[in-house]
Amino acid sequence: MLKHVFLTDKPIQKVSVFLIAAFMVLSIDQLSKFIIEIEIVYGSGIEITSFFNVVHLKNEGAAFSFLSEAGGWQRYFFVSIAFVVSCWLIWSLMQKPHRKEAIGYALILGGALANMTDRIVRGAVVDFLDIHWQGMHWPAFNFADMSIVIGVCFMLWSGIQRDSTQKSR
């Protein structure tokens, strides 16, 4: 089953499956953030392993806290970008792209909608996954961020595979 899903790259037939997948990413992300907000005091965390903590932080900026100290306007800017990108991703899914590309679109869509929801509802994105090693911390992130990164990887994979297929012809 997984081999069929990931290794064949035919155009998709049912867009609804991918929209449901995006909604599932949104739902899982929002549920996890809700649990973090209830269970962990803001600014604190729980050590899980010697290199991984679950924390409760908020990011008013974008990736790596870009523009987090910009004074508040960035919230509306990032909501606007997420809205436009989400509309484009839905339109792209409606074009019935190849499977790997569609998986990428769905994962990015779910992540973008989840972080947009945070900005609208909470005023900032809740981050809670903290990876560190020997005192060096990767910026905290969340499931939506992971979904976006994995989605981009699927799109790159699809593009590389399509490019190599075209060159072999």
Q: What characteristics describe this protein?
A:
169 residues, 4-stranded antiparallel beta sheet, 5 helices, 4 strands
Can you characterise this structure?
The protein has 169 residues and is of the alpha+beta class. The chain has one domain. It has 5 helices and 4 strands; from the N terminus they run ααββααββα. A 4-stranded antiparallel β-sheet has the order 1-2-3-4. Helix 2 (15-39) runs parallel beside helix 4, helix 3 packs antiparallel against helix 4 and helix 4 (99-121) runs antiparallel to helix 5 (143-168). It is globular and about 50 Å long. The two termini are 28 Å apart. The mean pLDDT is 86.
Task: Characterize this entry briefly.
By secondary structure, the protein is an alpha+beta fold. It has helices spanning 2-7, 15-39, 73-94, 99-121, 143-168, and strands spanning 45-49, 52-59, 125-133, 136-137. It contains 5 helices and 4 strands, in the order ααββααββα.
Helix share bin: 55-70%
| Total beta strand runs | 4
Count of the separate structural domains: 1
Strand content: 5-15%
Q: Could you name the ranges where pLDDT drops below 50 across 5 or more consecutive residues? A: none
Radius of gyration: 18 Å
How are the SSEs placed, and which strands pair?
Layout: H1 2-7, H2 15-39, E1 45-49, E2 52-59, H3 73-94, H4 99-121, E3 125-133, E4 136-137, H5 143-168
Antiparallel strand pairs: 1-2, 2-3, 3-4
Helix pairs in contact: 2-4, 3-4, 4-5
Protein name: Lipoprotein signal peptidase
Family: Belongs to the peptidase A8 family.
InterPro entries: Peptidase_A8
